[in-house]
Amino acid sequence: MSEMNSSMVDVATLYIVPTPIGNLGDITHRALDVLNQVDLIAAEDTRHTGRLLAHFGITTRTFALHDHNEQQKADFLIEKLQAGTSIALVSDAGTPLISDPGYHLVTRCRQAGVKVVPLPGPCAVITALSGAGLPSDRFSFEGFLPPKSKGRRDVFQDLIEAERTLIFYESPHRIMDSLDDMLAVLGADRQVVLARELTKTFETFHGAPLGELIEWLKQDSNRIRGEMVLLVAGHRAKQEDLPADALRTLKLLVKELPLKKASALTAEIHNVKKNALYKWGLENLD
Question: Which of 2-11, 70-79, 140-149 has the least mean pLDDT?
């Protein structure tokens, strides 16, 4: 049997195993094989994972590894791995380490020369992005927003001119406050998509300018229930954001030079951002 098709797990190996974010049908055959065959499963919540394992008839022993004990337990797990134990790391849902525990353990494994094998699988960030209809060529996952208003506004202020799609996790009890802070910094016209209850019965995608999205959510409290992913369109350079004389210069230079070079020269002449000029040129010049 080729290695590519083998379902046997290796000794002394840590497997990173994604689990469903809602729909149990999203677990992979490989994930089930690994969870069945490893010696131990390190789980964020053993009771939560226990229900998943019971559903699939898996009886592998579990071990609690969460935010509060990970650094203390990492050395214990490293010792077991070095002694030949195979371990699967799972979080409550989705891919471990993505706003979930596991970073310290994986780092320690790498430092200790322990083999780490990541499995592909469910991840709310990528699931949301693929269905949101926002640009996906450049994006960044920003994790959970800070719990307090000032912290959130500071985050939005730091990202106000970021041109990539921004992705955040947020909880139902903070979603409206977070959107109000976003509104105060990014403005009512910024395009935002709320992806809610992904892969579950009431999965919802709703995209609108931020001001309209907030009003839509206020109309029905059911719209702010469940697990949430916020996707925010990147900053787009508008003609009114750029000085008219800079745009005139760009239009002249681009007749003789490639847009990238023309943008760089115009930026130097008028002391404006070349990326903004370049993006404006792509969208407005033939």
Answer: 2-11
